[in-house]
Amino acid sequence: MTNLTTTYMGLSLRNPVVASPSPLSYTLDGIRRLASGGVGAIVLFSLFEEQLREQAARAIRLVEETAESFPEALSYFPSVAEEDGGPRGYLELIERAVATVDVPVIASLNGVTPEGWTDYARAMQDAGAAAIELNIYHLAGDPDVSGREVEQRHVDVLERVKSAVTVPVAVKLSPYFSSPGEMALRLDGCGADALVLFNRFLQPDIDPEELIVLPRVNLSSPADARLAQTWIALLRGRVRASLAATSGVEVAADLARYLLAGADVVMTTSALLRHGPGYASELLDGLSAWMARKGFESIDEVRGLLAVPADADPAAYERAGYVTAMRAANAGAYNPW
Ligand SMILES: Cc1cc2nc3c(=O)[nH]c(=O)nc-3n(C[C@H](O)[C@H](O)[C@H](O)COP(=O)(O)O)c2cc1C
């Protein structure tokens, strides 16, 4: 009998498969299905900084308009200003989800500026979120902004959110830093309780017939896992924060790969969208069967077995791997896909 239990930023999970943010968590019914499908925890779809700003701007407009015409109506203001499906709906969904499912429910806050909206993390915590996943999807599109400024922004946003809550805070980040390892260490040093590797960069397609740009999200394929796998293997044992893998899980062997690299939990969205929320239990059955076949009794025995060794120089280790692979490729040993 294999033991799949694990911990993720201090939370006890029944297994290491976590549903990452997606439309599957948009409704209470969807959340219920994810939980009964077998996942160990659920990260809800993101609430965006832009939604919180819109709500705040609308609230200010309403106060001004109402104060001008009916000063006595100000006492009704909160219920007038709030809308369904937006920030308030999100808090209600957290409350209902927490009361309904028996796995941790993690709220996702998605933003890039260290400003007032970060306080919303507190409201998420008060609604019952077991943790906050902070998605800092910052595309450094302005060529006048230095790499150091971009990095500092990540630190500032994290610090703001950390100061607003007592529950654990995970940071979901992009791999596109000059030194992703140093960025990970800085976030770790600023109190990130987990690092979620990685955000998939939205690369818009171009339709040459219609002459339009198509900013669409594609589902991932297993090859998308390699980048996160590489960095998880490098960071295992070098940060205090938990490591969560996100991208490219399609079959149970992909879970095994990430765990061997050193992930504490493995997240999945594309596979659950393709095959349905119940597919999590198939992935878990496959993981248990693989562990039994290999003689592993617990996730702890698997985790990090193929991470970059603690005493290795990570840069030299990666360079050696690269040179070996390229020399073999030039001698004809490469995979066709
Ligand atoms: C339809 C869809 C919606 C998503 N929505 C969010 C979101 O709201 N917030 C977020 O952090 N990630 C979001 N993601 C990214 C996923 O959580 C996940 O990190 C990514 O798809 C890579 O994992 P996968 O290969 O298992 O799909 C979304 C992905 C998809 C496909």
How would you characterize this protein structure?
The protein has 337 residues and is α/β, with parallel strands linked by helices. Helices cover 44% and strands 15% of the residues. It has 13 helices and 12 strands. The chain has helices at 28-36, 49-69, 77-81, 87-100, 120-126, 147-164, 180-189, 225-235, 252-261, 270-275, 279-294, 299-302, 314-330, and strands at 6-8, 11-13, 17-19, 41-48, 105-110, 131-135, 169-173, 194-197, 205-207, 212-214, 242-246, 265-268. The strands form 3 sheets. It has an 8-stranded parallel beta barrel with strand order 3-4-5-6-7-8-11-12, surrounded by 9 helices. α8 (225-235) packs parallel to α9 (252-261) and α9 (252-261) packs across α11 (279-294). The protein is globular. The structure holds flavin mononucleotide. Flavin mononucleotide is lined by residues 20-23, 45-46, 108, 110, 135, 172, 200, 217, 219-220, 224, 246-249, 268-270. The site of flavin mononucleotide has 22 residues, from β4 and β5.
**Distance linking N and C termini:** 36 Å
| Average of per-residue pLDDT values | 91
Query: What's the helical proportion of residues?
Result: 40-55%
Strand order in space, largest sheet: 3-4-5-6-7-8-11-12
Give the topology, please.
Blueprint: E1 6-8, E2 11-13, E3 17-19, H1 28-36, E4 41-48, H2 49-69, H3 77-81, H4 87-100, E5 105-110, H5 120-126, E6 131-135, H6 147-164, E7 169-173, H7 180-189, E8 194-197, E9 205-207, E10 212-214, H8 225-235, E11 242-246, H9 252-261, E12 265-268, H10 270-275, H11 279-294, H12 299-302, H13 314-330
Parallel strand pairs: 3-4, 3-12, 4-5, 5-6, 6-7, 7-8, 8-11, 11-12
Antiparallel strand pairs: 1-2, 9-10
Bound molecules: flavin mononucleotide.
